[in-house]
Amino acid sequence: MDQSSSSEFKLSASENAEFYSNLGMQYESFYGHDAVHHGIISRFLDLLPASNARVLDCGCGTGKPVSHMIAARGHHLCGIDASQTMIDLCRKRVPTGSFECVNMLKYEAPANNFDGIVVSLSLFDLEREELTSMVSKWFRWLQPSGLLLLVVLGSEGCETTPEMYDSDGECARGILARFMNRTVSITLFTKQGWNNLVTKAGFEIVCTEEVPFVPSVEAGSDSELRYHVIARKPVTGGN
User: Fold this and answer.
1) Which CB contacts under 8 angstroms, 24+ apart, belong to 9-15?
2) DSSP-based three-state secondary structure for 190
3) Strands (E), 109-213
4) What is the pLDDT of residue 138?
5) Which of helix, strand or coil describes residue 178?
6) I need a surface site. Which of 102, 115, 150, 236 has the fewest CB within 10 A?
7) Quick check: 90 and 96 in contact, CB under 8 A?
8) Mean predicted lDDT score pLDDT of the chain
9) 132 or 179: whose pLDDT is higher?
10) Which CB contacts under 8 angstroms, 24+ apart, belong to 71-78?
11) Closest C-alpha among 230, 58, 68 to residue 150
12) CA dihedral defined by 57, 192, 133, 206, rounded to 10 degrees?
């Protein structure tokens, strides 16, 4: 389907926040208990450069599993989300964390402020240009040797046409996906596109992993080809 016909399914930032606010705990019941998801978060936490690291959960949702697992390791957790409902849930469930209701595009942090940043399934409403900007911000916010974990989707797992892809073939726009009984339009990189996005920002890739995820029928969602990327800011990396 071309982009003009898919535009009606594209959520604005405010609509996206309202959508997730209305989902609340229903989202967690279908997506918060995946063992593979827990596994990549644990692997990331094992690699952090400090025992009491300062970690940002960018798009923290209900707080589980990501924020909860970070705090349980004794790290200093900062979480942001555009949904006030989600932030309220996080504050109740992860009382040791610090949470702020803010769109990630508008959030600012000092350079070299975090030892780790987790971005897990929270980028679906962003366009390519916004994603490129966010990766550069994450690089700047991380300490040298700091780690980034991306849990994203690869466009290879979705129904696309050649016309959806940018000229470099790395990013498809206007992909229609079924999520929680709603059709949404999203922008996704290919797996190699995600790798290139991260390395062009200055990161070194530590590891990648491709994992299929099949939600329950009750979730009303499409199956997903999840792509995990752990990347490190080099010690010689600039701010």
Assistant:
1) 9/176, 9/183, 9/184, 9/185, 10/184, 10/185, 11/125, 11/184, 11/185, 13/82, 13/103, 13/105, 13/125
2) coil
3) 114-120, 142-153, 171-179, 182-189, 204-213
4) 98
5) strand
6) 236
7) no
8) 89
9) 132
10) 71/96, 71/97, 73/45, 75/45, 75/48, 75/115, 75/116, 76/52, 78/54, 78/114
11) 230
12) 50
Start-to-end C-alpha separation, the chain: 41
Peptide linkage before 144 cis (omega within 30 of 0): no
Amino acid at 51: S
Looking at residue 165, what DSSP letter applies? B
Tokens of 106: 């508008």
Give the separation between CA 105 and CA 131, rounded to whole angstroms: 9
Region for residue 169 given its phi and psi (left: phi exceeds 0; alpha: psi -120 to 50; beta: otherwise): left
pLDDT tens string 148-179: 999 999 999 999 999 999 999 999 999 999 98
The per-residue pLDDT for 3 is 40
Cβ neighbors of 237 (< 8 A, separation 6 or more) are 139, 144, 202
214: Cα separation from own chain's centroid: 18
Quick one: tokens of 132?
């490129």
Of 117, 104, 24, 123, the residue nearest 70 (C-alpha): 117
The answer, yes or no, to whether residue 12 has pLDDT greater than 80, is no
What is this structure's pTM? 0.89
To the nearest whole percent, how much of the chain has pLDDT over 70?
85
Q: Which of 229, 178, 185 is nearest to 207 (CA)?
A: 229
Closest CA relative to residue 58, chosen from 171, 179, 149: 149
